[in-house]
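Journal club prep — side note

Before the paper discussion, L.F. wants everyone to see what a predicted structure for a comparable chain looks like in token form. Sequence:
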Amino acid sequence: MVRRIDVTGAGGVRLAAWEYGDPPKGLPGPRQAEPDPDPGPGGSARPGVLLLHGLMGRASHWAPTARWLAERYRAIAVDQRGHGRSDKPADGPYDRDAFVADAEAVIEQLDLAPVALVGHSMGALTAWQLAARRPDLVNALVICDMKASALGAQSQREWEAWFRSWPLPFATLADVRKWFAEDDPTLERPRVERGAFYAEVMTERSDGWRPVFSRRQMLVARETWVHDAHWEELAQVQCPTLVVRGLDGELGRAEAMEMVRVLPRGQYAEIPDAGHLVHYDSPAGWRHAIEPFLNEVLHPVG
């Protein structure tokens, strides 16, 4: 079962969140944000896990992960500002402070603290920045395929060109899947999972299928890690942290290992047969990597 909850983010931005699994007992309505009264092992409430998607992603991308997490945890996924069904203010802001403040608002309004944050790409950066700034809110962290170093101006120019190459509007959803899985010139080899990923962020308009997000806003959001490195905040994260990369992802092994070294309590996991979209490319490998980590941190023995 999935229950939608509306949360108020920074500056009054409305954020759409989803709770997976059976709803907490006694809640009078599907949209009411209430703490989870359902006792878990030892009589305490189930530990919370907040899932933060990457740039251009949406909460529904986490559905398979959230469903197995919901067996033991209170699993919440949120559409971040500018994405999915959350507000997309024309003038933003889409800077790091806004995304971090939104995640903080979700945790506090849904009474999730202390929470485990699981973030992919941009969502991972948001997660470790929040963990560094508000250690009282976060008790575990999973960083999936996100660099701590600045990507550089050339990377932004490449993305601008990539966005211009999209053959919008797509005539059918099948065309969306095919282009992103096979025809995209930036692909090194076909990836069916990539087509499925992008099909979820398209919506049908009067002239065909278009993204649910603004490509201009995505570029603005991306500027915040194109030009700035985030090693200092990474080093300030005190909770146990798992750095995960796909073997063919964007985070190289050398930088991933340096991130683990910089983190006071860092661990490392590498998933074969996975690219940047690790949880889509290899769902079994993804679960095998993060489930034991979360169980160990959130359900310690002894």
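L.F.'s comment for the group: The first helix runs from residue 63 to 69. Keep this in mind when we get to the figures.
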